Amino acid sequence: MLQGLPILSLVIWLPIAFGILVLFVGKDRDPAPARWIALAGSLLGLFVCFPLWTGFDRVATMQFVENVPWIAHFNINYHLGVDGISMPLILLNSFMTVLVVIAHWEVITDKVAQYLAAFLIMSGLINGVFASLDAVVFYVFFEAMLIPMFLIIGVWGGPNRVYAAVKFFLYTLLGSLLMLAAFIYLYQQTNGSFEILDFHQVPLTLTAQVLIFLAMFMSFAVKVPMWPVHTWLPDAHVEAPTGGSVILAAITLKIGGYGFVRFNLPIAPDASHLLDGFMITLSLIAVVYIGLVALVQSDMKKLIAYSSISHMGFVTLGLFIFNGEGMLGALMQMISHGFVSAALFLCVGVLYDRVHSRQIADYGGVANTMPVFAAFFVLFAMANSGLPGTSGFVGEFTVILGTMKVSFWYTFLAATTLIFGAAYTLWMIKRVVYGAVANEHVAALKDVGKRELVFLALLAIAVLAMGLDPRPLSDVMNPTIQELLRHVAQPKI
Amino acid sequence: MNLATFSLATVAPAMPEIVLLALVSILLVAHLFFRADEQRLTYGLTLVSLAGVAALCTVSGGQGPTVTFYGMFVSDTLSQVLKVATLLTVAATLVLSRSYLELRGLLTGEFLCLALFGTLGMMVMISAHHFITLFLGLELMALSQYAMVALERDSVRATEAAMKYFVLGALSSGLLLYGMSMIYGGTGSLELSRVAHAIEQGGHNTYALFGLVFVVAGIAFKLGNAPFHMWIPDVYHGAATPTTIIVGAAPKIAAFAFIIRLLTYGLQGLTADWQPMLVILVVASIAVGNIIAIAQGNLKRMLAYSTISHMGFVMMGILAGNEAGYTAAMFYVIVYAIMTLGSFGMILLLSRAGFEAENIEDFKGLNQRSRWYAFMMLILMFSLAGIPPAVGFLAKLFVLNAALDAGYTWLVVYAVLLSVVGAFYYLRIVKLMYMDAPTTEITLDARADTRWMLSATALATLILGLIPSPLVEICSRAIAATM
After folding, report:
1. Rounded to two decimals, what is the model's pTM?
2. Is A363 exposed, middle or buried (0-12, 13-18, 19+ CB in 10 A)?
3. Which of A56, B154, B250, B421 has its CA 20 to 30 Å from the CA of residue A188?
4. pLDDT at A1
5. Between chains, do B389 and A140 touch, taking CB under 8 Å as contact?
6. What was the pLDDT predicted at A75?
7. What is the complex's ipTM, to 2 decimals?
8. Contact A313, A254 (CB under 8 A)
9. B271: exposed, middle or buried (C-beta count within 10 Å: 0-12, 13-18, 19+)?
10. CA of A19 to nearest chain B CA: how many angstroms apart?
11. Does the distance separating the beta carbons of B419 and A73 come in below 8 Å?
12. B378 chain-A contacts, CB cut-off 8 A
C-alpha cells in the first residue's frame, strides 16, 4: 500500500510544511487556529511514521531508501534511509512533538504561532538528521536545527534566556564546524563521495582516524553532552520553556549519542579502540560526578538537567565498551531517557504553570492537593532512578551487564548511579510531593486537567511498556548493532 | 587601427558595452531636459537600460572565448555570466533604494548616470584581456564611485568618506600600475595571453615577480582584503546606504573577474608565488573581519567588517589554485552580492525621512513590528554566518572543500574556528530582533518596490540554499570555459 510513497521525505517535510502553514495562519490575537493546525500537523507527522515501524525488516540494512542527486557537481545526494538505530529515534521524536504541542496549549500565550511553528519545523529537521545518509544533507539538518532551538530558548525562555540561547548556539556551532572539516577531509579520501556509508568503508591511517574522531567528538560530545563540555545544558534547560526542555532532553541529546554510533565508531574504529579509555573515563566522570552535582541542586529543572547528563554518561559508556550488551543498553537508555526526562520536565512544567517556581523549597506535600499528578510524578521518578519494570531499568542494567564483561571497577563506578540516581530523584520527590502541605500556594493547587492527563498517561504507558517488554525494540535494534560491532572490530588502517 | 580589418564581427563581442555606453550617453543628455518631477523617467530608463543590456548579454556570445580588438577584449561564458550578475545586481540596488533616494533628493540624473558608468566600467573589467583594458575598466568604475560617494555633498561624513576612498583608491591604482609596468618589463607584453606565455617560457622572472607583489596588493585593496581594508568601514559607513550597496555588491563580482583574468590566467605561471601572498591575505582578512566586527555598534560598519571576512573566503577559493577553487570563489562572490543587497536593503527598509536605521539597536524588537521582515533578516544573517539551509553555508562549504583539496588543512580549521567568532555578531542581530522589546512603534512604511526586492533577495538566499545546482553548474561551466 505504501510502497511507492517516499515515507522518509514525508516524515521530514510534512511537519515543516505544517510549521510554515502555522506561521502564515497564526495571528497573535487569536491563537486557536494555529493551535489546532499544529496539533493536526504533529499527529499527521506521527501517523506517517507508523509505516516505518510496521514495514521495517528486522535486518541490518538501510531501509526506506531515497536517493536523488542534489548538487550533482559535488556528488551530493539527497540520500535518506533508516536502520534499527535511527528508526526508533524518528518515532520518538515525532511522538514527542505531539506531546509538546499538547503541553503548550494553555501555557504559552505569547507569539503562539511562532512557537508552534518553531517546534514543528524543528521536528522535521531532527527527523532529517536521523534519516540522512549523505554527510552534507546530515549537516544541513544538524545545523538548521539550531535556528529554531535558538529562538525557542531565547524568545520563550526564562529570565536568563538570551545568555543561555547564545551559549547553546555557539557551543554547538563550534563543535559542528570542526565536524564539517572532517567531512570534507573524508570526501577527499573517498575520491568525491559524501555518502556516510562510503565513509564507513574508506581506509584511513591511525593519525587521520584520531583527528577525525576528535573533530567529530567535539561536535557530538557537546550535544550528548559529555563532561566537561556539558555546561551549556543546565543553562539551556533551565531557561527554556517546558516544551523546549522536553525536546532538548528527549531528542537533541540523543543526536549526540546517535552521532557517535553513526560516525565516530564506524568511520574511525581504530581510533575508537585507541581512545576508549578516554571516552569511558569521561563517561564515568559524568555518571559519578554529575550525579553528585545533581544531588545538591535546589532548582528542579536543574536537577533533572544534571540527571540527564549523568544518564547520558551511561550511553557513551555503553557505546565504548564494544560489546553487544553495552551497545544495546546504550541505545535502549537513549530511548528510555527520552521518555523519562521528557516526562519529568513536563511534570515540573505542570507545577511551574501553577506556582511559577522551580525551586524545590517552594513546594512540599503536593500529593495532598494533586494526588493524580503525584502518582505520575513518582512513577517517572522511579523510572529515572532505574526501578525494574520501568524503562529506566532496561538500559542501565544492560549497560552494567556489558561493562561487567570488561572491567569490575568500571562496573563498580557505573553502578553507583543506581544509588546516586535514586538519591537525588527520590530526595526531590520527598521534598516536593510528600510531607505536610508547605504553604498556601501548594494548598491552592488544582490537580491535573484532562489535557495534562493525556500527555502524562501517554508517557506512563510508554515507560511501563518499554520496561515490561523491551523485546520489540531490541529486536529492531539488534541486527544493526551486531553488524556495527562486526564492522568496528575490523581494523581500517 | 587599419580600417580594412574593421567589421561588425570584430565589434560584436563588445556589443553589450557599446550599447550601454550609447544608452548612458543619451540618458546623460536627455535627463537635462526632464523637469525635476520627471526624474522618475530617468530612473525608469536606467532600469530598462540595465535590463536590456543584461538580456543582450545572455543572447550574445556564448560560443567559446572570442578575443577581439587586437587582444584587448575577450568575450566568453565567464564574462557573460558575470556581466549578467553585475547588471542585475546594479538594477536590484536601484530598485531597493528608490524610495530612500527620492526622500533625500538623491534620485537625480547624475546619480543614475554615474551608476551606469560604473557598471560599464565593471563590464569592461570583466571582459578585459589586456592590462590596459583592465585598468581602464577599473578606473571608470572607481571614478564613478568616488563621485557617487561624494554626491551627498551636504554630508560631512560622506565627503570625508569620499576623500578617503579617493586618496586610498588612487594609491592602490598607482600600486597596480607600477606592478603592471614591472610585469611589462619582465615579459615584454601587456596582453594577458602573451604575458602568460612569456612567463611559462622564461623560467624564473624577477621583474614579473616583483610586479606581482604590487598587483596583488592592488587587487587586495579593491576586493577589501586585510591588511588593505582600511577604506572599507569608513566608506561603507560614510556613504549614503544606496551608494554603499553600489560600492559593496556588484564591484566584488567585477573584482573577482579581475582576479581570474590577472592571477589565474595572465600570471598562472606564477601560481606558486602568489599563493603564499594570498595565504597572508586570507589569514588577516578572516581574523580582522570577524573579530573587529564584534565591537561595532553601527550596522553598516559591522557589515563592512563582515565583508572583509567574506572576501577572505573568496580569496581562499582563489588560493586553492584549481578549477574547483575558482568555481567555489565565483559561487561565493555571486552569493555574497545577493546577501549584501539583502542586508543593506534592510537598512533602507527601516530608514525613514530624516532617520537612518543604521545602528544595530534600531533592529530591536523588529519581530514585534514586522514578523515577515524580521524573518527575512533572520535568513540573511544566518546566511552570512554560514548556517544552513541558507546558501551562505554552501558557499563556505565549496570554498573550504577547494582549500582542503589544495592541502591547506590548517587554513580550513583556522577559518572554521573564526567562523564561530563571526557567528556571534550575526546572532546578536537575531537576538535584538527576536528577544528584545522594540524601542519604537512606528510601522514600516517603505514602498512596495523596496519591500518586494528585499523579500526577493532574502528568499533567494534560502532558495539557492535548497536548490543550488543550477548556479553551481553555471559557475563551473563558466570557469571551465576560461581555463
Report:
1. 0.91
2. buried
3. B421
4. 41
5. yes
6. 86
7. 0.88
8. no
9. middle
10. 14
11. no
12. 147
